[in-house]
Amino acid sequence: MELHVDNILKDLQKDDFDAYLLTSFTNVKYISGYKPTSFAFCVIKENPIIYASGMDMELARNNSSIDVNEYESYDVMIKELKEEGIKSLAIEPTLPYSTFIRFKDDFKIDAKTYIDKQRMIKTPDEIQKITEASEIAQKSFLQLDILNNKNTEKEVAFDLVRYMIENGADKESFDTIITSGANSSLPHAIPEAKKLSQPILIDWGCIFEGYCSDNTRTMVYTERQHEIWDIVAEAHDKAIKAIKPGMKCCDVDKVARDIISDYGYEDKFIHSTGHSLGLDIHETPGFSSRDETAVEKGMVITVEPGIYLEGEFGVRLEDTVAISKRGNVIGDLPLDIV
Question: H or E stretch including 132?
Fold first, then answer.
C-alpha cells in the first residue's frame, strides 16, 4: 500500500498537483486497507490522511495504514487542507458531482486516473486472492450437480450463493445469473421462479478477502445449441491463446469477434470480450474494440465471448485470465460441463 501511495505522489509531482482526493470505497480500501461503510475522504499528499465518519472511526483506526481523522464538516476539512498549502487537487473521475461542487471554488481541480492505472496491475497477493475466490466459486458450482438439478432458477441461485459462503467466500461478487431456455439470450437475465429448462446459462462469482471472481458456463443439449457452443468455445480458447504482453486489448477482442463473425454471428455478439476485475467486478482495462491499452504482466482480465439468438437461446463462456508471459486461466473448471 505504501508503494501505491509513493507511485501516486510521483504522478502528482509530474503533473504539478498538490494532492489527490478519493472517495470510492474500493479506492480507499486499495490505498489504505480500510473499506468505508458510510463515507470517507482519502487525501493523498506528502502526509496522507483519511477523513472518516464517526460511525467508521473504530473500523478505520483498526485497518487503515494511513492516519485517520474524524470528519467534522466540509468547511473544516477544506480549511485544514488549505492551511497545509494545498492549492491544486486531482480527483478520481468517478467523484460524485455533489462532492466536486464542495471543493471547486477552493482548489484548482482536474480528474486524473492515477489510481486506475495502479489498480490495473495486480500484485502476487492480489492475484492469489482472486485465485482463491475463483476456486471457491468453481467448487461451489460443482456442488450444484447442475445437469441433474431439478430446482427452479431462483432456488439454484440461492444454493450457489449459500455454497460459496459456506466454502469461505465473503459474499457473491455480483447478482448471480441463473437462466435457462429462451431467457438465456438475455446477457443479464434475472433468475425466475421456474424450473430449469434448456440450455442453462450460469454467470457467477464470489468475493474472498475483498477480491472478486467471475465465471460463466453454458450447458447445451440440442444439436443447434451444440453448434453455437462450439463457435463460442473456439472464440474463447483462441482469444486466451492470443493474449501476450504488449498486445492491445482491442486486438484480443478482435480475435474473438473475428471468429464469431466468420461463422455469420457478428451481430449476435453484443458485448465486449472481457473486463478486468479485482476489488471491483468491473475494472479497467477491458478486452473491447475501443480499448487500446497495452496488455501488461500482472493484469487480470476475463474472456467471455457469447452469441445471443433473440427468442431462442444464448451461449456465453467465461474464464478469468492472469497475464504473465501469456494468458493463464485461473482455476481448473472444465469449459464443457458433462
Answer: helix 124-143
Task: Scan for cell 474463447, then name that residue.
Answer: 236
Element (H, E) at 201: strand 200-204
C-alpha cell at 4: 501505491
Residues 101 and 146 in one domain: no
Task: Give 130-189 pLDDT, tens digit per residue.
Answer: 999 999 999 999 999 999 999 999 999 999 999 999 999 999 999 999 999 999 999 999
On whether the CB atoms of residues 260 and 235 are closer than 8 A, the answer is: yes
Same domain, 63 and 82: yes
Q: Which residue has the cell 472444465?
A: 334
Residue for grid cell 494532492 = 19
Secondary structure element (H or E) that encloses residue 108, with its range: strand 108-111
Structural element, H or E, at residue 70:
strand 67-70
Cα–Cα distance for residue pair 170/142, rounded to 1 Å: 19
Mean pLDDT, the chain, whole residue set: 97
pLDDT value, residue 194: 98
Residue keyed to cell 443447434: 224
Q: Which residue has the cell 472478486?
A: 212
CA-nearest of 258, 277, 289 to 174 is 277
d(CA 86, CA 82): 5
CATH number of the structural domain spanning residue 32: 3.40.350.10
